[in-house]
Write a structure and sequence with these properties.
heterodimer; A: about 290 residues; ABC transporter involved in vitamin B12 uptake, BtuC; about 75% helix; B: six-stranded mixed sheet; 11 helices; globular
Amino acid sequence: MSQFAQVLLSGLSTGSIYALAAIGFTLIWQAAQTVNFAQGEFVMLPAFFVLVAINFLGMPLWLALLFGLLMAVLVLGLLFKKLIVEPMLPKTGLPLIIATMALSILLKESVKEFYGAEAQPFPDILPQQTMNLAGAVISVQDILNLVISITAVVALTLFLNRTITGRSMQATAQNPAVATILGIDTKRMVLYTFLINAGLAALASFLISPLYLAKFSNGETLGVVAFIAAIVGGFNQIRGAIAGGLLIGVLDNLTATYITAEYRAALPLVLLILIILWRPQGLLGTDEGRQV
Amino acid sequence: MLELQDVYGGYGKITILNGTSFKIQKGSITTVIGPNGAGKSTVFKAIFGLLDIHSGQVLLDGRNVTGQSPRQMIGSGVTYVPQGRNIVPQLSVYHNLELGGITSPDQAGLRGRIGRVMEQFPMLGEFRDRKAVELSGGQQKQLEVARSLLLDPRLLLIDEPSIGLSPNLVQEVFRTLTSLRDQGVTILMVEQNAKAALAISDFGLVLELGQTRMHDRAETLLADPRVGRLFLGGSIEEEG
């Protein structure tokens, strides 16, 4: 029982980080009706901004994290929107998707060229102790990863539902034509969506990099898992992305512990196939309409 | 109140409005009628800054507002209810109304104005926390009209308000419009249901191929056989 609790918590912890990345797919889908295939690299890159700040600019960890967050918002939010999405948006559909694939390769190869192919140690930002809870040895880092991710998601949900700006973003996502005739600054709302996505990606990066180290290819796995999580949960719903991320994190850990570790990487794909066959709109997704 | 002077415009290089000109009197209801493709909805989009005007002018109270953005037009006292369903489906009725006042400089007074609009449309008060998508078609149209009133517009552009509504609901929407006119709001309406719309209007104008073919008092147009024939596939020029 205690092992189950440990595995479950660890799965929820990893899954919550997947969820942060998966939410990005949903947000970008809502804002630009496209799939950002560079999302995995969006989670990989901020860790390297932090490493650059520490190793090249001599910043302390807290300042380096702030630098990493700001750079992520600037590069993966503002510049991504202005330089890639905006010029491609009128073409809609495939060209923009291909552009995000190209961006994925560009980011990955740039990091590899600049920082090398080796995995880089990333400083611990959370305590590494364990604690004993009802006989189960629980990692404080797992708990804090989960708490921080959930806090971020709750804050995002509150922002979207309880503020006029958040509701304007929802209006822009759900019915851009109506948002325009109401006088909502839709371009600004879309920009906010991209900035929020970049911020969430940076947070996911800071939480997962101490566990997996920082490596140029981290985005490959993360991107695929987050993409599958978003589809499994429901691509047009934030709560779907959260559910999908948590589900994959937990199932991954349970499979590796109780069944086999050999096929754990295949699990999300099996889940994806089953969901597409059984409920194409995802567990919590809807057939129609778009919702932030 | 509103004047279009020889307006040419359309979507990109496609020209729909071919020298559209008319004047709308303050505090009146004017219905725009015409066959499909005449440019009725396009003229609204041109007024509201939603498409390119290639040449000509849109004047509001004598002020040139040609090419102003929707946000600027709202600031000038113009609101627009396009045809079809124009709600934010997953937001509540209250929050849909709230968004109608998002450009208001007096955000503090917005809650009071929403309360007044809900008094005017009691159904909206009753369903204030219901998602807009859960309202019936007629209720959604009432929500759209109510939302467009939050900023106390001087000019309301409303496109095909009767579409998809039962005859009872059409009458309800038309009663709402006449009541607004009586309160001093100027209304420019596009309506396929020409007879019913002209019956509540002060003026009517007939658009064909992006040009104003007729512009007269509503009862005069109602009595004009050319208008009837126009809706049976003829054209004003042929008949005239």
